[in-house]
Specification:
Layout lengths: L2 H10 L14 H11 L9 E24 L2 E27 L9 E23 L4 E24 L3 H7 L1
Antiparallel strand pairs: 1-2, 2-4, 3-4
Length: about 170
């Protein structure tokens, strides 16, 4: 497994080991405990929704489109790429969370993952992908079709220009 793929996999594992020492009942220590244990309000999670198709006959190719929901705005994107050792055809509908996205332009990039799948009819899938900027996608998918494959996948995600940007450029 490649180090970046392993890092993406390891980062996706939930680690919930956290303990606080017993504190005396003073107001200061109660304040400190409430500040440490109170979760910060998440303004809005960055998420994606997408559709994807994959066809394979030795080499697999995937293409699709989706919407990135970031800071209260929606951004359209396209997906393209593939891997080796793929046979069949599937349709995928999915959703996911995006983490470690410091700037919007870091979403564009090549995402890597290792995958193995077999599907006949319909099923579910999950994947964790990471790009060159360290942005991670944790995906949940509904799959339909007939397909078998095992490969290192390389998918290119590219934000599409807004229609108003196209009009302003003309």
């Amino acid at each position: 497994m490649y180090p970046r793929s392993f890092a993406a996999f390891a980062a996706s594992l939930p680690i919930c080991f956290f303990s606080l020492p017993a504190l005396a009942g003073s107001a200061a220590s109660t304040d400190m405990v409430s500040q440490i244990s109170a979760p910060k309000a998440d303004t809005a999670a960055t998420t994606i929704s997408f559709t994807l198709k994959e066809v394979g006959g030795g080499l697999g190719y995937e293409w699709g489109k989706g919407i990135l929901h970031h800071n209260g705005k929606d951004y359209r994107f396209e997906i393209g790429g593939g891997g080796i050792a793929s046979l069949g055809y599937i349709n995928v509908k999915g959703t996911g969370t995006v983490t470690d996205l410091a700037k919007l332009d870091q979403f564009d990039g090549t995402y890597w993952t290792v995958k193995a799948d077999a599907a006949v009819g319909s099923g579910v899938g999950a994947a964790v992908l990471e790009n060159q900027y360290g942005v991670k996608l944790d995906l949940k998918m509904q799959i339909s079709g007939a397909h078998v494959g095992a490969s290192v996948m390389r998918l290119r995600f590219r934000l599409l220009p807004d229609k108003t940007e196209k009009l302003a450029a003309q």
